[in-house]
Design goal:
The structure is a single chain. This protein is an alpha+beta fold and about 625 residues long. The chain folds into 3 domains: about 1-220, Glutamine Phosphoribosylpyrophosphate, subunit 1, domain 1 (4-Layer Sandwich), CATH 3.60.20.10; about 240-375 and about 485-555, Rossmann fold (3-Layer(aba) Sandwich); about 565-633, no CATH class. The protein is about 45% helix and about 15% strand. The protein has 28 helices and 17 strands. Helix 2 packs across helix 3 (about 100-110). The longest helix is centred in the middle third of the chain and has 19 residues, at about 380-395.
Length: about 625
Amino acid sequence: MCGINGIIYPAASGRSVDADTLVRMRDVLRHRGPDEEGLFVRNNVGLGHRRLSIVDLKTGQQPMFNEDRSAVIVYNGEVYNHMDLRPDLAERGIRFHTTSDTETILKAYEAYGPDCVHKFRGMFAFAIWDDKKQELFIARDRLGVKPLYYYLADDGSFYFGSEIKAIIQAGALKPALNYAALPDYLANHGTTDDQTLFAGIKRLLPGHTLTWKDGKIGIEQYWDLAFEPKLNGSRRTDADWIEEWLDLFRESVRLRLMSDVPLGMFLSGGIDSSAIAAVMSQMVDEPIKTFSVGFKEREANEFEYARLVAERYKTDHHEITITPEQFFTELPNLVWHEDEPLGFEASVPLYFVSKLAQEHVKVVLTGEGSDETLGGYGRYRKAMMLLDYGEKYEAYTPKMLRGAVRSGVAALPATLNKKLKRTFLALDADIENIYFDNFAIFGKTMQTRLFSEETKTRISEKNPYFRLQNWLRETDAQNILDTLLYADTKTYLHELLMKQDQMSMAASIESRVPFLDHNLVEFAARLPEKMKIRGSETKWILRRAMKGLLPPEILNRPKMGFPVPMGNWLKGEFRHLVDEYVLSERSLSRGIYDAEYVRRLATAHNAGEDHASRLFRLMNIEIWHRIFIDGEG
């Protein structure tokens, strides 16, 4: 796990890369790689690297060169099957001088060119400068576990980094708010396209490669998630499906134990992390080191469940309880680490448990990805039911009558229409309204009230789900559940992974996600729907696979997520933070929001309505603005 960065100028510009600038870019990422540092500068090209040493501790230094030094790589991540790739490369006459996966990637690029990405199994973001071609090749892993951001200047100069702050350190552009990305962020926890909240700075999307040559870039998609054709189930029993899925899951966990340093895992007490603990315990000799985090509020910690699993598998268990004072004190630092406003309240406790783990290990396994691949969220069932009923309702109910019903629902008191207004009785029965808008933090209607007229003009009335609509056209999914899983894999999951990466790397620790091995994800996508959701039971195949391995209390408990008692904090002892970051003259004078609407939102929260998630996001945007745009970071 590392931090990478680079600068490339068009040769015709006559510019040479300044080593000091490259060092500033590199060293602002020191937390991603505190163990070693490296630099490569050759005329108009410069690459930087910070290393967190995990594999091949003695000879895995970067930047790394090929035999004749005509190609050089900087790389962040882990390719778990790299040793399996070496025999074929050796048959081609390629020699190896290290046991690192970095060298395997570089030699695979020499042998296969850009197609090398199809060979790799793992998480990665890497950049290779090919001096013979005078070309930069960048690739990002299929699911987007590792981040990569870039900026292409008008003159063709190209800057990239594992985090946005590295690009800002280059001084190539003045940080400014990208208004067009605001609706997306406020609806969906984060942007769903290649856009960021920084004007001009983009992210390379998961499963894509980028090539820079002569001041121009070309971007290609090399992988996408396919749901069809479904695996042939005519001769398979439920037991057959379960066995095959479990074999792939075990293999994924085994691969992610590749390490030359101590490793452990985050244990929440939910079924996902508990499943990893159950399988991992069968593969290691020493007690697993497990780490949990929670709050003192009873409704916001899962310690009792984590302890149950820890006792079952005799793990070396560690816990940390954080206070609201710690939470809010650390918030500005974590906004700096994430580069953009935090999309999830849970980012903060994730950072604290990462700090705890870092005292004992350098690598952790985590449970992200199960819900988005196996249908784990309750909102999937709700949306499927509403869309099914809504389709029938629209088919058999005259349009005039539907209009009257919609007007009637709107006229009901808020206490009565709270749930009805989120159904097909008040909304068009399509995925955008029933799913995306229903579960948005700030939905479309709220955004029309939230934004000032000036902001609306700058946004150009972009729909907050503009990229989601494109993805719905791109998928081969043939049923509602698969369509929702595809969209969440492209959006919600990506933000979860960015949270996981940036908060763990803020504590200089590597996190790995066994549920997102692409072989396992591809298998899950092509499973029949009944293997994911059956009746009221979500993640059906996972629960059956873990039967006998996990206690019934874990298998049968409802999903809790990662609760943060934000609502009570923001209308109680920490209400002053809303005053400072949301309602202050400094915040409102930016002109982003309609000031009166924001005040009404805060007043309604204090009166008992739940707007904690919305206020938290507005707080984060203001903190972000002060750090990155006002330059107070």
